[in-house]
Amino acid sequence: MLHMISCAAYSYVAIHLLEIVPRQHILSSRQFFKILALSAIFCFSVVCGNTSLRYLPVSFNQAIGATTPFFTAIFAFVITCKKESAEVYGALLPVVLGIVLASNSEPLFHLFGFLVCVGSTAGRALKSVVQGILLTSDSEKLHSMNLLLYMAPMAACILLPFTLYIEGNVAAETVEKARTDPFIVFLLLGNATVAYLVNLTNFLVTKHTSALTLQVLGNAKAAVAAVVSVLIFRNPVTVMGMTGFAVTIMGVVLYSEAKKRSKITTH
């Protein structure tokens, strides 16, 4: 919720005070509901992702997240009828196969954690397709900063009741901690600032490439996060699990090459 409040504040400053980009208005109720749907999907994805971390190690969580391109390709086809080449779809098979291998050999496998993590992954894929429509469609095109300006407050409002219900007296606890250790204020501000930059660059990448490319690029982060997680938390990893993750990353590389070739042939 703090991330979304900071995104709204930074976007407001960038558009209204610094005038980096001109302000765009919501043109129709249909466009409004698309932005609201984007906010709800985003919240669902984040809540599921954070919940899964209570049950699954970070490395396995990131491995499941690597299947996002697979879900993105499906949603892009169902919602926008956007077809990729057979080579691109073929490259996504090892991405999913790798996760199946990693799941079967995960020592700390938890079914509920796995299901909410898959839900988070599917939500992230659906969000990238919907934001792609709002950023690139001729009739409803919004600049990345304007989309963030409208989406962030909606997401913050959706998350507010969950925050009050689940977090309890978190505001008072944060103030109490800040009195004894003021550095936490800088940590929260820094964290919120990075969140704004992450969301803004996320939208910009979607606008200038595609929803599917954004998710494939995100898998590079997943590989690094998985390795760092194993090094920090020392969670057990099997040879089969590492093999599965390696197969997934190989699929990502194959996808990148297939996508590059399909662009060359279309041009």
TrEMBL record:
InterPro entries: EmrE-like, Sugar_P_trans_dom, TPT_transporter. One of its GO terms (cellular component) is membrane. Its main location: membrane. It comes from the Eukaryota. It is a multi-pass membrane protein. Keywords: Membrane, Transmembrane, Transmembrane helix. The chain crosses the membrane at residues 32-53, 59-79, 86-102, 108-126, 147-166, 186-205, 212-233, 239-256. The keyword Metal-binding does not apply. It is found in: Membrane. Residues 3-256 form the Sugar phosphate transporter domain. It holds the Pfam family TPT. This is Sugar phosphate transporter domain-containing protein. It comes from Malus baccata.
